[in-house]
Design a protein that fits this description.
mainly beta; 9-stranded antiparallel sheet; 7% helix
Length: 279
């Protein structure tokens, strides 16, 4: 083998090693499936609830908080059920009660990345949404703080018995900017909501954007900063805060005491709309 070929091979090996070392901050790139069709939680990297606090999902069995079941499904054979009761705050974790799964590096997005997301969410018939805040899907920043983009419910950022998209802008890590809810709607308890989102990830208001489809229909945003538009130009990353990764489940204000249940099914993430798995 010639010297040039050896050098090229070594360079490729070095790139591969560095890429693996940086996996938690890497972009999703080729996509991600988190539809629970494995019959367990193993597609997801990390699980958090009051019992396991935070563990790799392949080490976590079904519990009262997070389970994969076949009675209430949107597609395929399985969906995930997330239940939170008053006081279900994992030990050592701040800010609220929760039952969530997360994708970390497998779902990561960074500055300039363009991603498509599709899944279904169902609020159970007794879902409490008249007090506090609840987050049922979120793109969590690498730095701590309110998620730059989330699917929320409740009167804190939206209205009682409504759900919607919340955008929490940041000026820098630890320095929050305005919070917007550009789209919201009444909660239809017991019905599946088919959600598709196209997000361009950027800390620059001139480049970041969100597009949103509900049950196959493209939505027009109804409030600031993009009322009347189908593409909401808004900062989607925290400046200086690194990228984001996707979490799904049920995370809520500890002031909410009534138990609540949310179902999720069919998540896929892709670089293009055509790459999404059908619901």
């Amino acid at each position: 083998m010639r010297l040039g070929s050896v050098s090229a091979a070594l360079l490729l090996l070095l790139v591969a090693v560095c890429s693996q070392a940086g996996a938690p901050l890497a972009s999703a790139g080729n996509g991600f499936i988190g539809d629970f069709e494995t019959g367990n939680l193993n597609q997801w990297q990390n699980c958090q609830d009051v019992q396991v606090v935070s563990l790799p999902c392949n080490l976590v069995g079904p519990s009262q908080s997070i389970s994969v079941e076949s009675d209430v499904v949107r597609q395929g054979r399985f969906a995930a059920r997330f239940q939170v009761r008053g006081g279900d705050q994992p030990a050592g974790l701040c800010c609220g009660d929760r039952a969530e799964v997360s994708g970390e590096g497998a779902t990561a997005a960074n500055e300039g990345d363009d991603r498509w997301y599709q899944w279904s969410t169902r609020f159970d018939t007794g879902f409490p949404a008249t007090q506090g805040w609840s987050v049922v899907s979120q793109w969590h920043a690498i730095q701590d703080g309110s998620p730059p983009v989330a699917i929320d419910s409740g009167p804190v950022n939206i209205s009682p018995n409504h759900w919607g998209i919340t955008v929490s802008t940041w000026n820098a890590p630890g320095i929050a900017g305005p919070t917007f809810t550009p789209w919201s709607a009444p909660i239809d308890r017991g019905a599946w909501n088919d959600i598709k989102m196209h997000i361009h990830w950027s800390a620059n208001d001139s480049f970041g954007f969100i597009e949103f489809w509900l049950d196959g229909a493209r939505q027009t945003f109804t409030a600031a900063p993009c009322a009347g538009q189908t593409r909401c130009m808004v900062r989607t990353l925290m400046p200086g805060g690194g990228g984001v990764y996707f979490k799904q489940g049920y995370y809520r204000d500890p002031a909410i005491t009534a138990p609540g249940v949310v179902y999720h099914d069919g998540l896929s993430i892709a670089d293009t709309e055509a790459g999404l798995a059908p619901l």
